Amino acid sequence: MNAFIGRPITLPPSAAGAGATVFVMDDDLSVREALESLIRLAGWKVETLSSAQAFLDRRDDGTPGCLVLDVGLPDLSGLGVQERLARLNRDLPILSSPDRATFPPRCRPRSTTPGNSTGPEVAN
Question: Bridge partners of 45?
Fold first, then answer.
């Protein structure tokens, strides 16, 4: 059951039947673990990787899926990963996950200190 909308999550038959995998690429272990738990809870197979090179070195076995990509990886930028995948003819949908450091100072999230509201802080 999806706690956010209160109804069961259903997978498209083509994705579920084909054994689609969600690849999560992030250098932050806590982010990888959290996304892995959420994706598995939704019924998807998931594979986590800590670096761009680990993903690019992975043998492409034709597994259908998508990539959740941290754009702020230390070894290769998100754009660099996309360019390398294109050169390797690996057609994979990519969901970019912005790194906190990539937000301009005017749009960084506010402090989550108790008593303060959460949400983006926008400077005037």
Answer: 21
